[in-house]
Amino acid sequence: YPYILCVPTARTKTVDLVEQYTELIDTIYVAAEERTIIVEEAHNFNKNASSPSPILELVAREGRGRKISLWMVTQRIQDFPKLLWSQCRYTYVLCVPTARTKTAELVEQYTELIDTFYVAGEERTIIVEEAHNFNKNASSPSPILELVAREGRGRKISLWMVTQRIQDFPKLLWSQCRYTY
Q1: Taking 80 as the threshold, does the pLDDT of residue 108 lie above it?
Q2: What distance, in Å, lies between the first and last C-alpha atoms of the chain?
Q3: How many Å apart are CA 116 and CA 124, to the nearest integer?
Q4: Which one of 23, 88, 107, 142 is most buried, by most CB atoms within 10 A?
Q5: CA 90 – CA 93 distance, rounded (Å)
Q6: pLDDT tens per residue across span 58-104
Q7: What is the mean pLDDT of the chain?
Q8: What are the angstrom distances between the C-alpha of 109 and each of 9, 86, 106?
């Protein structure tokens, strides 16, 4: 089959799932066939934010040479190793607060992440959803979004900003956009 969908039962523990999925990812890696692997709740694979899962690190670093694309999805950016993020070509920043987090906390975490990407200067596409949340108001853009919008192209960084609240979005940032939809 071209697709594998793993749906755990309600009784399956996270640690057991990670173990099973790790074996599955290893099998896909060894087979070296063109594949896309999507790892949902990817933060669960890592012991902590400074220690990436060995299998995710292997696929992230060497998978492209085997025609394997790795997509990692997490809502816990603070628990996700920067080493894995540094291997990503595309980063989608969806800033939606949950019951446990406030928008300001998420913006702070994602601002640090975007700054890390900018400093690294590697080719990357960053998509910021709900981008109006990063700005204090329509006349005061987020310093990191302004920096990446102004200078990112020279560092091979594409910045896509998505908002439904155009009235709350700084014109300074829009003026740096090559395309507006």
Answers
A1: no
A2: 37
A3: 12
A4: 142
A5: 10
A6: 998 999 899 888 888 877 777 778 888 778 777 776 655 555 566 67
A7: 80
A8: 32, 16, 5
